[in-house]
Amino acid sequence: MIQSWLIAALGRARRRRSRWNLLLLGVALPLWVFLWWGGFRLVWAYHVRLYPRHAGALSQFWPAGISRRAFVASFLMVFGPMIPAVVLALLVTNLLVWLVRPARLTLEAEASTVPGTTFRESQRKLLIAAMVAIAGGAFLGMRRAAMLTGLR
Predict the structure, then answer these.
(1) pTM of the predicted model, to two decimals?
(2) Domain housing 16
(3) 152, part of any domain
(4) Which residues contact 31 (CB under 8 A, 6 or more apart)?
(5) Is residue 46 part of a domain?
(6) How many folded domains does the chain comprise?
(7) pLDDT (tens digit per residue) in 24-81
(8) CB neighbours of 119 closer than 8 A, spacing ≥ 6?
(9) What is the pLDDT of residues 13-29, one digit of tens each?
(10) Cβ partners under 8 Å of residue 120, min gap 6
């Protein structure tokens, strides 16, 4: 299973020859960081709503001497939104780059040689992945936010 996925991934990577692919990367990375930070801030806002005494204590997040329980809960609060942020960044990046006509034409031509990689098919797959990732990330982040009773 992993071998077939790897072979398919290498086939998709070989088709990427144009410089427009750099635009995908240049847009996706900063957008991912922004969405990840925003997702964490939402989880933190939920946490502060549950534990108002932690309001203004974000600077005390992961202090020296933190307990294992607090570290695991806070770690999952931080990394719970990571995967949803990646998928959303890819979804939005594809859309933004698709709006640039020369990029769209070049990338669609590259995608025509590999089945399942057109804009429409990629966006559909990313949308499904986003729904699953958001549900899982929200559950993980919010559940751990509720379990983080103390920052130490």
Answers:
(1) 0.81
(2) 2-147
(3) no
(4) 89, 92, 93
(5) yes
(6) 1
(7) 889 999 999 999 999 999 998 998 898 888 887 777 777 778 888 888 888 888 889 9
(8) 94, 98, 104, 107, 108, 111
(9) 666 677 888 888 899 99
(10) none
